[in-house]
Amino acid sequence: MTAFLIIIVAAFINNAVLVQCYGICPFLGVSKKMGNALGMGLAVTLVMAITCLVTFPIYNYVLIPLGIEYLEIIVFIFVIAALVQMLEKVIKKFMPPLYNAMGIYLPLITTNCAVLGVAETVMDTTAMETIFHLAEGSFHVGHAVLYGIFLGLGFTLAICLMAGLREKVDNLEMNKHLKGFTITMATASFMAMAFYVFALVQI
Amino acid sequence: MTVKQFLQSKIFKCIIVLLCIALVSGGLLAILNDLWAVSPEELIQRGIKSVCGDGVNLEKVCDINKDYASTNDGTVQQVLLLDTGDYLVKAQGKHGFQEGNVSCYILFHLEDSVYKVQKVSIADYSSSQTLMSKITDSGLAKFIGLSSEATMKPSEIATGASYSSTAIKNAVNVAIAYMQTMN
Amino acid sequence: MTGQKFKEIAKNGVLVNNPTFRLVLGTCPTLAISSSVFNSLGMGLAVTFILICSNAIISALRKVIPNEVRIPAFILIIATFVTVVRMFLYKYVPALYTSLGVFLPLIVVNCIILGRAESFASKNPVLDSAADGLFTGLGFTLAITLMGLIREVLGAGSILGYKLWDFSIDFFGNTAGAFLVYGLMIAGFNALYEKFENKRKRKNYIEEMQASSLAIQAKENEPASNADVKEA
Q1: Residues A122 and A148: beta-carbon distance below 8 Å
Q2: 3-state secondary structure chain B
Q3: Which residues, at least 6 apart from B87, have a Cβ–Cβ distance to it below 8 Å?
Q4: Most buried one in A185, A199, B35, C185, CB count within 10 A?
């Protein structure tokens, strides 16, 4: 039940792009073609899952016991940068087809706020337990990774929907100032309205 | 590569520069962290401010009577006497949705020599779009609507519709039961 | 630093290269935080402070930091100042700390700051860099506050928490409204900018024509003046 709740909240109710405004840059920049959008989305999902797996224990079992939780921003950004570098090397060596599909997006992900955002969200166990109504001390690394994966899949969903819509919208005739950025934002606005309905879900 | 070569190499310089920056910034942050530490009293004051607004101050932190503070449904965590003569009780309700706990601030106002519930608000409550905010919006409205004519009978305070409001209800009931023992 | 250069930096930072409306950088905080004037102003000032400090420090250290590790070094310096701002807000402005939430640490990955460090501060002297940070930050603050103003007036019917009227459209307070308002503002600013650009081009063209006609006149007068000189 907890897992189901985490999936629903991460993918829809707290959708990374359309509700929380994380990762707008790739959402606008890489959503011109469906294939690119899917590659970017899956790369972000992979990095998010690994980030949650690594930063959650670092914060809760290393930084807090040592009393240096104020260094969390510095530690997280370097951990994410290092992870992305390593992931790129590993994928290039062992899975060349996957590297061809999403390799070029990996370096962009270091400065994607969605990844740092999810690390900052899941590390706060008290807040997460409040959100998911869990008993004290029961939010563990498995929950964190699940949240990361499904926040990433929510991002993938949003960016793929956007790509599908943009393939149509970008070909329309319109005022040159509205064309491009503005019409993309208006499309995103309508999508966000649709996702806002998920917030009315009462459990 | 000999040690001397390594000491003159670019890699060594890079490492030294990065380490120096890291040490300086770490030291700066450590000092500022001590300098700007938030004391527990300040946190209590912030809790009061979030419930009662500006201008209300703490009179004293009351000792909690351990015999009555904890029941099967919840725990009284803090009892604060305010300078307006009201009591602010921080209580944690159990048996919420998925056996989770919810911490609430409950404000008691003395009226006709009984303490009545005046306001309930969730502690550590953020207003972002989450499940929590949606549930508490509807759940809290019930309590706040009820509180103006709240009686002191715990069973009548409210019947929460959702699981989460069970925890809120438990917190309120524990606080009311505790305040009755104080009278 | 001369007054001329100072003026140029100010104009570039606030108007010509406005980070939000012209370069479309730092979109995430712009969309997420601009639901009220108070939050926008807080976010803008926090970013401005971090920009000034990080630009100054990076510029001071630009000859020390080896080129190979400049990005990690920049991020380290920026992250330090973000942490300082976060601690300060937690201690002295807890309301702002709560409402900025996770977007406060996310200033680290804000492209405006890293962009200015990379393109300006790592090449220019300290004072220029600090001024650039100040004006880029002010440009960001003005833009995000303008958005906050529009969204708060329409979405909550208030300014800085003071109620104007009871009428409000919830849409503008949500993410959906943020997307739409931002898109329309970009379109509006692009149109305005193009208008100014056309005007400037026309003015330049006229000036050029005048200059060239003056030059022709001068050429015609030249022999005469030379003759005058000889006579003298």
Answers
A1: yes
A2: CCHHHHHHCHHHHHHHHHHHHHHHHHHHHHHHHHHCCCCHHHHHHHHHHHHHCCCCCEEEEECCCHHHHECCCEEEEEEEEECCCCEEEEEEECCCHHHCCEEEEEEEEEECCEEEEEEEEECCCCCCCCHHHHHHHHHHHHHHHHHCCCCCCHHHCCCCCCHHHHHHHHHHHHHHHHHHHHC
A3: B62, B79, B80, B81, B107, B108, B115, B179
A4: A185
* CB spacing of B29 vs C69 below 8 angstroms: no
* Tens digit of each residue's pLDDT (9 = 90 or more) over A53-110: 999 999 999 998 888 888 889 999 989 988 888 888 888 888 888 787 777 777 778 7
Cα separations (Å) of A19 from A16, A148, A193, B100, B127?
6, 16, 9, 25, 13
Find out whether B138 and B110 touch, Cβ atoms under 8 Å.
Answer: no
Of C68, C76, C98, the CB nearest to B14: C68
Confirm whether A5 is domain-assigned: no
pLDDT in tens, A48-64: 999 999 999 999 999 98
Structure confidence at residue C228 (pLDDT)? 54
Residue pointed to by tokens 């305010």: B82
Residue B126: per-residue pLDDT: 45
Residues of A in contact with C183 (CB under 8 A): 181-186, 188-189
Least Cα separation, residue A179 to chain B (angstroms): 31
- Alpha-carbon Rg for chain B, nearest whole angstrom, is 24
| Section C149-169 average pLDDT | 86
Interfacial residues of A (vs C; Cβ cutoff 8 Å): 18-25, 28, 70-74, 76-78, 81, 111-113, 116-117, 120-121, 177-178, 181-186, 188-190, 192-193, 196
Distance CA A42, CA A150 (A): 11
Domain total of chain A? 1
